[in-house]
Amino acid sequence: MQGRLEERREHCRVDLRATATLVQRGEAVGRFTVQNLSAGGALLTGGRDVANSAPLRLLLELPKGETLAVGAHVRRRATADGTVALAVAFRHVEPGSEDRIQDAVMTLLDDRFRAEHPAVLIVEADAQARLELTARLGALGRRAIGCPAPLDALRVLESGEPIDAVVARDGVESGPELLTWVAENHPRVRSILLVEDRSSDPAVGHLQIARCFPEQLAAALA
Fold first, then answer.
1. Using one digit for the tens of pLDDT, what is the confidence trace for 121-155?
2. Architecture in CATH for domain 111-221
3. By Cβ atoms counted within 10 A, which residue in 52, 97, 122, 151 is the most buried?
4. Are 166 and 217 in contact (CB under 8 A)?
5. Which residues of 42-79 are buried (b: 16+ CB within 10 A; e: fewer)?
6. Residue-level pLDDT at 198
7. Strand duo 67-80 + 83-91: pairing
8. CATH 3.40.50.2300 domain locations along the chain
9. Which superfamily is assigned to 14-108 in CATH?
């Protein structure tokens, strides 16, 4: 199966569970869950949004009790069921701070936690749509890993990362083919085709592929 990488990142990004506080205009906006983290930015989920224009400070709580403050700006945002997802990029990170972030990533990589909380793999080329699905899954208390193309999803599936479901939207190029491949080669991983057009009746290539509307996602993952 071939795929094209739609979004390239300068830094390696790792999915984990940590916490951070966002500060804007000198006041704390709230505490957020760090869904993934790299020296270049982070994906945060929480209960409050931030103002569009004002600069941000992110206070990352490091494993040893330290707090690292970095400047940040919001690249994308999405809201679902009261959960806000923010994709933030760090600004002017000093080399020493990059090292501390990478050390934190390595410390926070808890194999036991990841095994006990397998992720949902989102296969979606559109960055905003990926973020919206991440927010929806965050509202369900689920860990999410976004992949811009089927080839990236295959790499995650073959990497040994604990995954218990793969979600692709109807109409996404190669999405149904990927779900068929997952159903045939990873039968313990649920394959879910997300149908947003209620007038459509998309065909699926395998009996194990579930079809659901967005509001039925919780039941499909139960």
1. 999 989 898 999 999 998 888 988 999 988 999 99
2. 3-Layer(aba) Sandwich (3.40)
3. 122
4. no
5. bbbbbeeebeeeeebbbebbeeeeeebebebebeebbe
6. 66
7. antiparallel
8. 111-221
9. predicted glycosyltransferase like domains (2.40.10.220)
Contact 71, 124 (CB under 8 A): no
Tokens of 88: 């933030």
Name the residue type at position 158. Answer: E
Q: Residue 120: which of 149, 76, 157, 150 has the closest Cα?
A: 157
Measured CA to CA, the distance from residue 174 to residue 148 in angstroms comes to 12
User: pLDDT per residue over 155-207, tens digit each?
Assistant: 999 888 899 999 998 776 777 888 989 999 999 999 998 887 766 665 665 77
Query: Using CA of residue 32, residue 35, residue 39, residue 40, what is the dihedral sign?
Result: negative
